[in-house]
Amino acid sequence: MTANLPHLTRRAALGGLGAALALPYIKPSFAQSVPIKVGVLHSLSGTMAISETALRDTVLMMCDYANSKGGVLGRRLEAVVVDPASNWPLFAEKARELLQVHKVDVTFGCWTSVSRKSVLPVFEELKGLLFYPVQYEGEEESPNIFYTGAAPNQQAIPAVEYLMSKDGGEARRICLLGTDYVYPRTTNRILRGFLKSKGIADADIMEEYTPFGHSDWQGIVARVKRFAGEGKKTAIVSTINGDANVPFYRELGNQGIKAEDIPCVAFSVGEEELAGIDTKPLVGHLAAWNYFMSSPGTPNTEFKALWQSYIKNPKRVTNDPMEATYTGFRMWMQAAEQAKSTAVAAVTPALIGQKLMAPCGYEEEMLPNHHLSKPVLIGEIQADGQITTVWKTPDAVKAENWSPFIPENANRRR
């Protein structure tokens, strides 16, 4: 059921990145001495550091790349890095510091929805600009945020639909396991509405939440096994975030839960998180994203080469939120050049309609609702920690940030 990738002929859309990688680095001389300041608002300590450190590194990579090409508007980019330390109120304090003290032109940051919701009023009050690179629950739209990760119709709903299909195992009971905060709870509210529309009864849905950093999964995994033993084909949908994924997946292996018996599809686990886990017992379990490191095509080859030229460590992988950061950064560069300004009021309208042949192998477009069109990819975990695509959409899917499965959205969806 795997769709064909579109023929990749738009190498020029990457602005000559491949040619740039082949040339020796020459330090440019900048026409203007005042730098463009780029805020980096990612947790470098605490429970989310396992996921967010790589995003800090991606932003730094893109600043170096831009500077090697002459900067933006002839000005050097200067990264300003802060550590909100997986502390949600501290995210707001650090956002205010970036905007008021450092006076950044643009910020790339946050992973969890609770961190994004913490900083949203700050960016709106101070008229800042935030690029948010991670899949989320939707139900939001801000003039000061561009959402480069997936909305529910670009990840969660297609993943569950796949699990219920013949190719996905025809699951008729679903275990919704998540970290206890807004993204898993809202996503699962949407999924319950979707499952109800497909004739799945409440009795065939198990739903449990655990705190950030949860480590004792023995009892929950045992309950999943009992739930699955009641007759109908069962699957796990995981919205577990951060370092709690390591003991969770370890416990799946300890209790012998194999993909052919109870497949687990994860929405917050990619190659970076799998790098710290023995993945052999997890072979065949699934991840739903919009990019995998194994995605074919020239744009991904160039993205991975750029990453390795910066990080100089073959063990450091690429993943979906890194690709979303990269795509958002390049669109911001394009918009600033088009607007001939880095001012938020000028860049924001210029971002709408920006297009890029992204490393996922599809052309993505920034939509009027500040969300990207994105493909949907379902992949199987391999023994080496990579993820191989088993199903994908033929085209990029437009984001629906107001879900039809939440009744109060009936009058606000576009």
Ordered list of secondary-structure elements with their pairings:
Blueprint (H helix, E strand, L loop, with lengths): L16 H6 L9 E10 L7 H20 L6 E8 L5 H14 L4 E4 L3 H13 L4 E3 L12 E3 L8 H9 L8 E7 L2 H16 L7 E6 L7 H11 L5 E6 L5 H10 L9 E3 L4 H4 L11 E4 L8 H14 L8 H20 L4 H8 L3 E3 L5 E3 L11 E5 L5 E6 L22
Parallel strand pairs: 1-2, 1-3, 3-4, 4-5, 6-7, 6-8, 8-9, 9-10
Antiparallel strand pairs: 10-13, 11-12, 13-14
Helix pairs in contact: 2-10, 2-11, 3-4, 11-12
Strand content range: 15-25%
CATH superfamily of the largest domain: Response regulator
Q: What is the CATH class of the largest domain?
A: Alpha Beta
| Overall form | globular
Radius of gyration: 21 Å
Which terms would index this structure?
single chain, 414 residues, alpha/beta, Rossmann fold, 2 domains, seven-stranded mixed β-sheet, five-stranded parallel β-sheet, 12 helices, 17% strand
